[in-house]
Amino acid sequence: MLRENQRRFKFDWVTIILFLLLVGFGYVNILSASHDGEVTSYLNMTELYGKQLVFIGLTFVIIILILSLEAKFYERFSSIIYLAAILLLVGLFIFGKDVNGARSWYGIGSMTIQPSEFAKFATALAVAKYISDLQTNMKTLKDQIRVAAIIFIPALLILLQNDAGSTIVYTAFFFVFYREGLQQIYLIVALSLIVLAVISLKFGIIATTIVAAVALTIRYLVRKKKRASKLQYVLVLFLAIGYGYGVKAFYKHGLQIHQQNRISLWLRLEKDPAKLERMRKSEAYNLIQSEEAISSGGLTGKGFLQGTRTTGKFVPEQETDYIFSTVGEEWGFAGSSIVVFLFVFLIIRILYLAEAQKSQFSRVYGYGVASILFIHFTINIGMVMGLIPTVGIPLPFFSYGGSGLWGFTILLFIFVKLDSNKINEW
Amino acid sequence: MRKLLLLTTVILVGLVFIARLFYLQVYGGYEYDIFEDTAIKKEFTYPKRGYVYDRNGKLLVANQPSYDVMVIPREVEPMTPEDLTEFCNLLKITKEEYNKKLERAKNYSPRLPSPFVPQLSKSDYAVLQEKMRKYAGFYIQKRSLRSYQTTIGANVLGDIGEVNRSIIEKQPYYKLGDLIGKQGVEQSYEEILRGTKGIKFIQKDRFNKSIGPFKEGRFDTLPVPGKDITITIDSDLQAYGELLMQHKRGGIVAIEPNSGEILAMVTGPSYNPNILVGRNRSKNYTKLHYDSIAKPLFDRGLLAQYPPGSPFKVINALIGLQEGVVDEHDTFSCRMGYYYGSRRLTGCHHHRSPVDMNMGIAQSCNAYFVNVYRRIIDKYKDAGDGMNIWANHAKSFGLGDFLNNDLSVGRPGRIPNGDYYDRAYGDNRWGSTYNVSNAIGQGEVEATPIQLANMAAAIGNRGYYYTPHIIKNIEGDTIPSNFTTPKYTSIDRKHFEPVIEGMFDVYNDGTAKSLRVEGIEICGKTGTAENFAIVNGKKTQLTDHSIFVAFAPKDNPKIAIAVFVENGYWGSRFAGRMASLMIEKYIKGSITRTDLENWILTHSLEDEYAKPISDEPFKINGETTLQVIDNYAIKLEDQETLKQ
């Protein structure tokens, strides 16, 4: 009985404290971003900060629930949880509600639920379950296809609901697969594709050809023993060139106008000053406001509730996707750096714990948690600071919204529970 | 190895983010300036600018309201063609001008307000005000412009104009479109007259809507009204001086010796200060500014730095007495000049000989003063030492340096010392014969009319002066103590009497005999200064300048004056007459010497001024004839306006 008790509370408190710090500081910034004049009551349910406080309260109920279940439950029921999540996503096509052009919400009374936030941990569980199966070998093509299917199904459903941002999150699992044995060539190809796409758009096909040719020549010279035939290298070069054309064509014809503009702004492709001036007021407006708000924070920021741009609501979507701009304006370089540090620390902590797991299921799941948090952190903060083209995904634990907060909390605390159970894993 | 991919990526991304944050917030981050913050609207309330009164309490400068249309380019929204047409019509500009003005404002700053159309008329304002809401990014800023209650004293009063960008950079108080004093007391008493504008900071939202005071108005300030000032100018005397100066170029400075207060400060040509108010200001200002021939913006009373000529002789007499190298009874012979061996160093005009001090001053004998001057310098073994002693005495009269007063412009003049000649000739390679011109106020000595007037005041006071100043009273404040402490010359009081007697005799039976005014004991000194100009690339002599320095009455003087008339030929001809008239006007309040007045008002030097630019050969001095004009019409008209 005593051992049982000890075990129950053998949670990783470092992770929990980091979580609490992020949620707490997130709430402070939502209060800044959403308050209108005087803050009369923190539980004012007509204001977003009031609602968020309720969401945070419910989060603790969820945490207790998750931690009180048997650790084995999650492995055993992972398939069912995954299927339930898929069903919820499919159901959106029938019962869903359109918000901002994306059909990703269920409306229950005045509440709305976004199932894609819950599909993330469900997919992470399913991936962990599949990979940890003794018969699975990530080096075989068969298993690669199957595990890819596990993430493609929810990703595709979400994409069909017009939520491209949340779809991108599923690329996070690449890190998981790579850790679990995916061949290095995938990594090289993936990186090459990203680099070549950027070069094709920014500098044109000639640059793509030169870079691809130089890279291939180097590889050819380095790999003296196992090198393939010259013909294959030439073939790859032509594939790269064809890919470059493909990217350009896709950029022009395959993307929606707003996506095209976001990339154009990011790579500074637009040179026409008149059009740029127009973009300043439309597509680029959010980004410019967000960057200016962050810049105006200076070293130490303007102080809690003192941000002039935050108070004036200059940054649209500031309490959700652009919440980091509030941190930048009101807490300055000091506060922003601390937030970046907390996220990095949390992800590294999870990676460290994951590597220490004795069961492969827990390890793979932990990796999934770290990867998903990492992708959100990178894309969201990168976007708000103008390093990455605009992609609408929330900053975990920070952004306003119940579904998001709960989704990330469940994601994280299932791992906390699995981790606490590693002693029993013999 | 596989374990490290995500770990290193996470750390790398973290570092990139910190670097980006550093770039945005610390490296590229500017010092937070609320005036640059687009989220905060700044509403200025401009206080009343202080009024200016003359020494007799007459109001000279008041205010009138003015309305500027301002623009914040970033907030301007595209207008429908009808709206644009209507807006342009209301502002009385064309669409091209609209675009040009908007572009110019944008170039200055897209987010700071710039004046779009300054100084609307009252009726335009009334119509426009109704419709202003329709035009996003534009608003009307009320300001106060000057309203001159007089047509005189443009150089004294100065004017106010929009600040330029270099002023804004140096003095952040000013924002584009603000007005600042330029020239005259508007400039030198800018901060007192202007007061402090009030600011309201208002939090805006992204739709540019005001959503309440910023931080409960903690930083808001109320406007502090500018203070009224009283200046030392006697506007009647000033007006009279300007009347006399018509058709001449030159300056008059009159000072009250027992206080240093400037009674009149005339420059010719001048202009009506009212032309620098309102929408024509910039056109008129440009015209004045680019008139490089008559230079109406050049205040000759303060800036005309020339060899003073004979009035400077009295300084040499005083230094001679103080140094004990001469007494009032010592005589020197004058054979139409001063001879050094067989070489004539300086000429002289015809008068009796030998000459004592009294006659030396009264007859302005050059030879007498060269003798005195050489004795001063040669008293010391080293000419450089003598020269330095001499220069220090001269400088104690406020010559050779800035007066440090409250006028917006000034010139230091020049009193050369030993170093000056050491530099020119080499150490100890010169002596008193090298620069005897200093004895008679020519050569290297230079002074401005205000310095000469102050010199006269110091002589009249028998050895001290108050720094000439223009402020008499600041509402609820005191004037700087610098202006109320006497500055003593290095000459003992007892030495002044013989010199003053000499100056008195200038009027009694000397060079200004014909300028006497019944009932006033005037002491004066005529002066004539040779001058040159570059005409068609050649240094050419022009007709001499006419200079006169005086104070009156002899005992307890009430006025000290210096008059300088460009190319007036000799001292008593123009400057002397004008000095007598000014003195009579100030002391008696009316003119008995109407013959002098008529002569001045009917004689013009415009012909003289046209010569160097006529491209024709011309004659100077004695070979010229004076232009006579009928000036009564102008005179009467001016006096009418002066009475208003």
TrEMBL record, chain A:
It holds the Pfam family FTSW_RODA_SPOVE. The gene is rodA. PANTHER family: CELL CYCLE PROTEIN, PEPTIDOGLYCAN GLYCOSYLTRANSFERASE MRDB. It is a multi-pass membrane protein. Its main location: membrane. It is found in: Membrane. InterPro entries: FtsW/RodA. Coiled coil: none annotated. Keywords: Cell shape, Membrane, Transmembrane, Transmembrane helix. This is Rod shape-determining protein RodA. The keyword Transmembrane helix applies. The chain crosses the membrane at residues 12-32, 52-70, 77-96, 144-160, 181-199, 234-251, 331-352, 364-385, 397-416.
TrEMBL record, chain B:
The keyword Cell wall biogenesis/degradation applies. Residues 46-210 form the Penicillin-binding protein dimerisation domain. Residues 250-577 form the Penicillin-binding protein transpeptidase domain. It is found in: Cell membrane; Membrane. Gene3D superfamilies: DD-peptidase/beta-lactamase superfamily, Penicillin-binding protein 2a (Domain 2), Penicillin-binding protein 2a, domain 3. The keyword NADP does not apply. InterPro entries: Beta-lactam/transpept, Beta-lactam/transpept-like, PBP_dimer, PBP_dimer_sf, PCN-bd_Tpept, Penicillin-binding_protein_2. GO terms for molecular function: serine-type D-Ala-D-Ala carboxypeptidase activity. This is Penicillin-binding protein 2. Pfam families: PBP_dimer, Transpeptidase. The lineage of its organism: Bacteria, Pseudomonadati, Bacteroidota, Flavobacteriia, Flavobacteriales. Keywords: Carboxypeptidase, Cell inner membrane, Cell membrane, Cell shape, Cell wall biogenesis/degradation, Hydrolase, Membrane, Peptidoglycan synthesis, Protease, Transmembrane, Transmembrane helix. It is a single-pass membrane protein. PANTHER family: PEPTIDOGLYCAN D,D-TRANSPEPTIDASE, PEPTIDOGLYCAN D,D-TRANSPEPTIDASE MRDA. Its main location: membrane. Its EC number is 3.4.16.4.
